[in-house]
Amino acid sequence: MTELTRYRSVVGDSARWEGFAFRTGDIVISTPPKCGTTWMQRLVALLIFDTVDLPAPVSKLSPWLDMQLAPLSDVLALLEAQQHRRFIKTHTPLDGIPYDEGVTYVCVGRDPRDVAVSGAHHMANLDVDRFLEARASAVGLDDLAELGVNKPGPATPPTPEEELRAWIEDDSDVTVMSLIFLTRHLSSCWERRDRPNVALFHYDDLLADLPGQMSRLARELSIDLPEERIVTLADAATFEAMKSRAADVAPNTDISLWRDNSSFFNRGTSGQWRDVFSEDDLRAYDARLSELAPPDLAEWLHTGWLGRSSARTHP
Q1: How many domains does one find in the chain?
Q2: Is 202 labeled as catalytic in the residue annotation?
């Protein structure tokens, strides 16, 4: 049995997966932050329940097992009690999650430059004090110094330009909002993409053809629904539809984690990076990405399956 890599951050700890008892048919949604995690959870929920009126908020139907804002015992009890087909959220790369042939692993990628822009908005919308209160109640704060959180900050806050360059250049093992973590995560999916129970999706493909991608997702999950039904369900998973139901779709709204729930869904577009990245930023980004990702993965990150120019076809 391959030893799992442990991933730790202020937000999550992949050690919480140790000993987890899978059921045949379980689904693991494994994505880097801001790559379409909530979107994929919404799509899976609509397919499993075959209704636009879900029985509970998405974060209750699809718990984030390794997030340290709830005691692990509570999350495991919630999953154990579920009678529906389970679909579990994680931001842990696949080499940090137990592998089971009876489980489907769904991964989602996105243009890293758009991830950087979306991540900056995400952090501005996060109520950090509320986050720390929830974490203190769930697992405590004694490990923050070990994770580098208690280090004194700069005399003046970094500018957006400095934050972007830090996102590009960060080498930390505990920073999940970084180019190195994103490529590490998606490399673990890319390397396993030919396994029959690993399904790799892309944010741009969801934007380009949501019903088509939802049909593909149904096939990957062996869910048999008529195409016309999938089109109806897909209408409930558009960006506008999710934003209109943010209290039920956005994660952790039950603990008031966001300054504005609807702002969790910011723009839902690709190409936002063009308004943010300077020419120098792009040069630094291109150089760094070439160090972190092989050419075929880098191409896919920027285009998805539907936009690839190489000979490999859509899965």
Answers
A1: 1
A2: no
